[in-house]
Amino acid sequence: MCKIKFIRTVGLLVIKNDKLLLAYSNNKRAWYLPGGKIETDELPQQSLVREIWEELTLKIDVKLLKFYCHITAPAYGEEENLIMEQDCYLYELHENISPNNEIGAIKFFDSYSYEQEPAQVIGVLQIFKRLKADGLVI
Predict the structure, then answer these.
(1) How do residues 68-82 score in pLDDT, each as one tens digit?
(2) What's the CA gap between 62 and 36, in Å, rounded?
(3) 122: which of 7, 11, 57, 71 lies 20 to 30 Å off by Cα?
(4) Which keywords does this chain's UniProt record carry (predicted)?
């Protein structure tokens, strides 16, 4: 029997025109929330600032981050016993962004267009469900 392991992560929620920004991971070949793993000595917001700079070359103003929710889901593309714990923060984007490092592309999705993708991440599906229930995306 495999022992369950947890990974602490953060995700950025950027919504424009009722659609959610997702980043395409070249490594995992799937669309994810921008963000990533929280390092041992970091607060979630610090990790989000670091990850978003690495992935999207965007300097986040921490004062503008608004905690939205926490999700728990199997870590996509990882070993079966790895569970992702993710704090998700809303952020209003005014700057231009571009993909960097392992991020191949960025795109805004509604829930229907995301569900048409060949690879679907359970955590992203959970976020879409919550955002739709709150009337933030279509």
Answers:
(1) 999 999 999 887 899
(2) 16
(3) 57
(4) Hydrolase
Contact between 40 and 130 under an 8 Å Cβ cutoff? The reply is no
CATH code where residue 105 lies: 3.90.79.10
Average pLDDT, integer, range 78-103: 92
Contacts 24+ apart (CB under 8 A), 32-38: 32/76, 32/121, 32/123, 32/124, 33/86, 33/88, 33/123, 33/124, 33/127, 34/103, 34/106, 35/9, 35/10, 35/11, 35/86, 36/9, 36/10, 37/7, 37/8, 37/9, 38/8, 38/9, 38/10
Output the pTM of the full model: 0.94
Q: Domain containing 88: what range?
A: 5-134
